[in-house]
Amino acid sequence: MIEKLCLALVFAIQKLKHHFQAHVIRLVLRANPIKFVMSKPVLNDRLARWYLQFQQFEIVYIPQKAVKGQALADFLADHPIPDDWKLTDELLDEDTMVIEVQPPWKMYFDGATHREGAGGGVVFVTSQGEVMPYSFTLTQHCTNNVAEYQALILGLEMAVDMRQLQLHIFGDSELVINQLLGSYEVKKPELRRYYDYAQKLIGWLGNVTLQHVPRKENKKADALPTLARHKSLSTKNG
Asked: What are phi and psi of 102, to 5 degrees?
């Protein structure tokens, strides 16, 4: 249950990021999800990502107690039901029912290996055009194809966390994209587990499209692996 509260808070941050940046956020809940994450002696990848997001904003926890009941009582006191008010089971005119369908998010991914190390990057573009870049380093040496798969998987895991069930994915790895589309066979055993896990995540999301783009058109994510690698090197040297 507490992890569901954490996930809900992460989703709210992604959707209302500008509000979180501009205001002190008062979190009214029965349990404190931020304390739950911080109390873990060892953080897995998902909890680590949540922790980093929580630390970016000023979030004040307030125990729920009677807040919910008092708010309902105040609302009813301010909005009394008229004596002549009649119940109706008629549906509203269908012309007044409007559902706004948001376009899918876009996700660009890229991974690369170099003599000094390896890194990856993911860039989300929201329905409103907001750009959300992420970069990471790989602690073990690997092939370019493995780095590409790991970048894709990181992005898919984040999309699952954010409940982004509609996603257009773009990558410059012809091998990875075509393997996931079924056009190429997965021949190398070391890629099989990454392929299987990526397909599982895509299945959880539901409405996902994959498209190969030339490297020159994947500029949104192309620079992130290099950035992540340089950050890792500067950390080691420092």
From this structure: -80, 140
DSSP string, 57-122: S-EEEEE-TTHHHHHHHHHHHHSPPPTT-----PPPPGGG---PPPPPEEEEEEEEEETTEEEEEE
Domain 105-237 has CATH 3.75.10.10: no
pTM: 0.54
CA distances from residue 28 to 10, 37, 69, 210 in whole angstroms, order as listed: 15, 17, 12, 39
Q: Degrees (nearest 5) of the Cα angle 132, 138, 141?
A: 145
For residue 200, the tally of other CB atoms under 10 A from its CB is: 12
Q: Mind listing the pLDDT tens digit for each residue in 52-73?
A: 777 778 887 777 664 455 555 6
Rounded Cα gap, residues 219 and 223, in angstroms: 7
Dihedral of CA 21/23/28/33: which sign?
A: positive
pLDDT (tens digit, 9 = 90+) per residue, 108-135?
998 887 776 777 888 888 888 888 888 8
Question: Where do the domains of the chain lie?
Answer: 2-67, 105-237
CA proximity to 155, closest of 213, 227, 218, 221:
221
CA distance 109 to 99: 31
- Report how far apart, in Å, the C-alpha atoms of 68 and of each of 4, 27, 72, 73, 162 are: 19, 12, 6, 9, 26
Q: Count the neighbouring beta carbons within 10 Å of the beta carbon of residue 153.
A: 21
pLDDT band at 170 (very low <50, low <70, confident <90, very high): very high
